[in-house]
Amino acid sequence: MKIAYLVNTYPRGSQTFIRREILALERLGWDIHRFALRSDRAALVDPADMAEDARTEHILELGAAKLALSALDWMVRHPKGAAHAFVMALRCGTAGAGKTPGTGGWLRHLIYLAEAAHLARRCHDLRLPHLHAHFGTNSAIVAMLSSMMGGPGYSFTVHGPEEFDAPRALSLGAKCDQAVFAVAISSFGRSQLYRWAAPATWPRLHVVHCGIEPWRFPDPTPMPQGGPHLVAIGRLSEQKGFALLIEAMARAAPSLPGLHLTLVGDGELRPQIEAAIARHDLSRHVTLTGWLDEARVREALSAAQALIVPSFAEGLPVVIMEAMAAGRPVIATAIAGVPELVTPETGWLVPAGDASALAQAIGDIAVTPVDRLAQMGHAARQRVLDRHDINREAEKLTVLFASKGNP
User: Fold this and answer.
1) Cβ count within 10 A of residue 198
2) Which CATH architecture group holds 2-211+389-405?
3) How far is it, in rounded angstroms, from Cα 373 to Cα 370?
4) Contact indicator for 317, 235 with CB cutoff of 8 Å
5) Residue 338 near residue 389, CB atoms below 8 Å
6) Which of 177, 149, 1 minimizes the C-alpha distance to 83?
């Protein structure tokens, strides 16, 4: 009942779904050792994330010299596996070199090799028989190389969209083929793994949803009057489409004087989004809050009549699950796994990249009676509780770990 988890950077404010999954597995009796390559503690605001950071072993905090010595010692004791892993690291590094930002070249993959050797050693010392990684990027390559050098068998969860942006450069197919099993968070995500994994691997590719903790979402608060009041939550990055949302707000605001958007999150595009808000004279209509802890996110959802998700690329956003659990309908772009959850009974699906369609959906919210919005919110809540209860999703992982994850 012991297992290791590996994430590139953990914990992070935008990845509380991993913490929820780990805690659900621990409630089911699993003893989970948390590994991460690095920490994001300076950016953490949620006390639960801070506590999780203290429970996590961050590999790079060992320091370059100690990490190199630990890795070299392990590789000397496992020369055949180290040689195979070295070849794989060079192959994967060559696949990504100079082609896709963030995938790394051969030099970065040699650093992954050292991290993997140390990880194999730590799993051996702690008698951890299986390693599960989140994301098919850095953490999955480290897990794969570790396994090749005598570390435990590994599995990993693919979220998207990063993995689907550069599947060849990330050697996504090889990671699936070498894994004990792989998980996608939606049927769409699994279909993308089918594209790159060998057909013989397909039976080992599964769908396990990210989940919400239902007890954190009691009966929804009454639907607010007036507005419309919207909330958007996420990292201020190119894939989230928030700049387009500001354009949609500018189109909708002249005919909707009570329109207000609370934008929760932060990121590299914040200066551009702030500039767009100023350019369109939307300061009365848009509030940027930065990152909020889970309790304040729930407060923001309660104060809104709907969540709006204008993303250009996604996996299946957990924020949609949280909004639906809070009894709020959703406006979202019809991409990736989103249509598997959001239906006409629970919200509005619009084409990605279409500011006019977003503005029209905002207008639709404005003319929808409050009692109808509440009915949609109730349907949304029931749907997400049926499909994304973290305890049930953790039970699916338990079956996979017990039947395939342990030697």
Assistant:
1) 10
2) 3-Layer(aba) Sandwich (3.40)
3) 5
4) no
5) no
6) 149
Query: DSSP characters for 239-256?
Result: GG-HHHHHHHHHHHGGG-
Q: What strand order describes the sheet that includes 205-207?
A: 56-58, 31-38, 2-9, 130-134, 153-158, 181-184, 205-207
130-134 and 56-58: which strand pairing?
unpaired
Structure token digits, residue 127: 């008698």
Residue written as tokens 């699916």? 396
Mapped to the 3 state alphabet, what secondary structure does 320-372 carry? Answer: HHHHHHCCCCEEEECCCCHHHCCCCCCEEEECCCCHHHHHHHHHHHHHCCHHH
pLDDT tens profile 102-159: 456 788 899 999 999 999 999 999 999 999 999 999 999 999 999 999 999 999 999 9
Supply 253's token pair. 């605001």
Eight-state DSSP code of residue 2: E
- Pairwise CA distance, residues 138 & 10, whole Å: 13
Answer whether 0.85 is exceeded by the pTM: yes
Range list for CATH 3.40.50.2000 in the chain? 2-211+389-405, 214-387
CATH 3.40.50.2300 corresponds to the domain 214-387: no
